[in-house]
Write a structure and sequence with these properties.
Helix content: 25-40%
Structural class: alpha/beta
Shape: elongated
Number of helices: 3
Distance between the termini: 29 Å
Order of helices and strands: EHHEEEEHEE
Strand order of the largest sheet: 5-4-3-7-6
Number of strands: 7
């Protein structure tokens, strides 16, 4: 199940993608389809077929974004979060081997294309919730339970 939470930056990014697809990219492709259709026989017209395929992909993504943006809840920083891990936190953790990782806990719609973001739905994020600096915690992985140590927490304000 996907959590319907998102940071303000993530929401704005999805909104900008929707606006670009609907107001800029789709009209460009629609013009190309109209031009290709005006050439005549569509059965062997590669430009027409390719641009119609692109148009279907754009329409599918636009439908998805519109529906998704309706149900997402923006979570902003609150001073009450200081000192504990909650949604939107940047955290630094260390494992028993001394390997450190630094990432931000965000909604599942924000993690794509970012190596430093993890979903609130991930086992690591779930294990981190409400922890404080200095806490040990365990994360269930396919190879078994792994112990981690919380080094730092901070929030974008």
């Amino acid at each position: 199940m996907r959590t319907n939470l998102i940071t303000r930056e993530g929401y704005e990014k999805l909104q900008n993608e929707l606006n670009y697809l609907w107001r800029v990219y789709r009209p460009e492709i629609t013009q190309k389809v109209a031009w290709a259709a005006s050439l005549g026989d569509r059965s062997e017209n590669a430009d027409y077929k390719e641009n119609k395929r692109l148009l279907r992909q754009i329409d599918s993504r636009v439908r998805f974004l519109r529906k998704r943006l309706e149900v997402l809840k923006i979570v902003d920083y609150s001073p009450q979060q200081d000192g504990k891990v909650f949604f939107g936190a940047w955290v630094e953790v260390e494992d028993a081997n001394g390997e450190t990782k630094k990432f931000r806990i965000v909604g599942p719609d924000e993690i794509y294309g970012r190596n430093d973001y993890i979903s609130i739905d991930s086992p690591m994020a779930r294990a981190l919730l409400k922890k404080q600096v200095g806490d040990d915690f365990f994360v269930q992985t396919p190879s078994g339970s792994k112990e981690w140590f919380l080094l730092d927490i901070y929030y974008n304000r």
